[in-house]
User: Fold this.
Amino acid sequence: MTTTLPVAAAFHHEYIPATPPPADIRPSPVTWALKNLFSSPFSCLLTVCFTGLAVWLVSQFLSFALINAVWRGDSEVCRANPDGACWSFIGAKLNYLQYGAYPATERWRVDLTQVIGAILIAWLLWRNAPRRNTAALLFFGVYPIAGFALLRGVEAIGLPVIDTTLWGGMMITLLMSVVGIVFSLPLGVVLALGRRSGLPIVRAVCVFYIEVVRGVPFITVLFMANFMMPLFVPEALTPDRLLRPMIGTALFSAAYMAEIVRAGLQAIPKGQYEGAQALGVGYFTMMRLIILPQALTIVIPGIVSTFIGLFKDTTLVAIVGIADFLRAVEAARIDPNWAGPTISSTGYLFAAIIYWFFCFGMSRYSQSVERHLARGHKS
Amino acid sequence: MSNKSKLSPVISPENDRETAVELHGLNKWYGAFHVLKDLSLSVRSGERVVVCGPSGSGKSTMIRCINRLEEHQRGRIVVNGAELTADLRNIDIIRGNAGMVFQHFNLFPHLTVLENCTLAPIWVKKMRKREAESVAREYLRRVRIEDKAGSYPGQLSGGQQQRAAIARALCMNPKVMLFDEPTSALDPEMVKEVLDTMKSLAAEGMTMLCVTHEMGFAREVADRVVFMDRGEIVEAATPAGFFTNPRSERAQQFLRQILK
Ligand SMILES: Nc1ncnc2c1ncn2[C@@H]1O[C@H](COP(=O)(O)OP(=O)(O)OP(=O)(O)O)[C@@H](O)[C@H]1O
Ligand SMILES: [Mg+2]
Assistant:
């Protein structure tokens, strides 16, 4: 730097002090409503119409679900009240909706499995939890086997075997979803990496798998898992009737998951790979510690959407004769002892609320993760 | 030239280890495009070589061939006695011996600076975490960003990011450092801090092969300046010789342009 700036006599610059915003641009409920709801006659009209419609719908819903609902009392009380939900019916059927035909004296096993599962999931999802690696190991390694042994029973340690034909209700839905979620994500990651691999045969196999599965309806996959797997696999190795749709579900979602993960992988700049390679980091370590953590965080919304879809799609296993939660609602609904005008509506409303509750939970969790990551380290 | 005697006996008794990087008749094609044409260059241990030349002349490609970020098709590359072949073990050895600093830093944005620096020592060299961290802190201190160890790359200025990237490469204890335009993505006021880091590295006797357009740096630090054009090495000379008396017409033209 050989040039120097000419220096003039310094003068003092007076800065303008900051002032608070004037009242008419400050946000307040009144200015907000004027601007967004009543800015023109047409928007006034729309506001009034839609508010009216919303109030009417909500009041209808509340009067059916809460105000006129029957909370206690037997089927006679429900039959006499055609205007409100019959929650005592749900109360009476709750055990059946939860466990299906699982023997009453052994239901503690289901409860125990679910409580352990819930604790492990909470441990995994809670961001600041200590030793999340241990949680992952327990959840993905130990829990599936231990959980199945507990539910199914092991003669040797005095747990009576409960045949899977007796399983049903919410426990099936949760089981299907958890197994589907737990296996479809890793499988999807493997397929996505395979599809981007430099090895032509690996790539061809992965592309073939993904495109075939995505081109076939889920019901077809379920039928194939149920009826064709026994034809291909020797009798002794044929998986359980409950396991077959689970495998089908996991394999089906894995193809969708693979495409979502691939989108994430494509968003990672080449420099990240080169930075790792130049340090001598091998392929698997690079993927595990550098590429996948970044790629998966980018596609969390897509992954959670797939999970939500999978959770709701488990209702389709009813078609191969498995009594999942919706199927249990269906069976309870047609019980002649409870026949009444509002029984069906109550049953379906209950099912909808339960499904919504789970899906909304997943969606909220993914949003909080995204917010956390956005606040953290963006470059 | 002067540092050779200081370093070479310690590294290896073998004679050819005195040469840190050796290129013999290196050729590379991108499809039908001949990017590198018969390059031969040898960098002795402790030597600082600056590579310059017009855009597209193949400087990056050459330096990226040395640690196999690009594959060459003809010729030999030997780094610290290990020849670069398709043998994966040799590639790993060479990548361990050659640290690389990129134009765009290529730090891992989801890891802190300290984690960036310890990842390879822990997973490649199987170092204990505690040990890797103390090594990393030492290098971060040397590039004068020890207070940023817990920050994420996105929270650092460009100059700090590049110094973190240099520290990350040094943590693997490389025998050669390869730089590919380490300052050309930086704002002018940050260039100096990175160049100072590189100068102190040179003063410690590190072997350096550096693509840069910072002619002041070349003049001050380099033992040799290599001028490339259209995939060939056109001239190699001492900085004094190259800057005051470039022999090829192309180099004269190049220098007129960048020193204007
Ligand atoms: N992946 C690629 N495929 C095809 N051609 C490439 C590829 N990478 C580089 N090239 C070409 O090879 C030539 C040399 O590129 P290189 O990046 O080595 O040049 P450079 O000397 O580093 O230039 P700069 O100073 O702009 O960085 C250029 O003409 C470029 O267009
Ligand atoms: Mg370049």
Confidence is low (pLDDT under 50) at residues 1-17 of chain B.
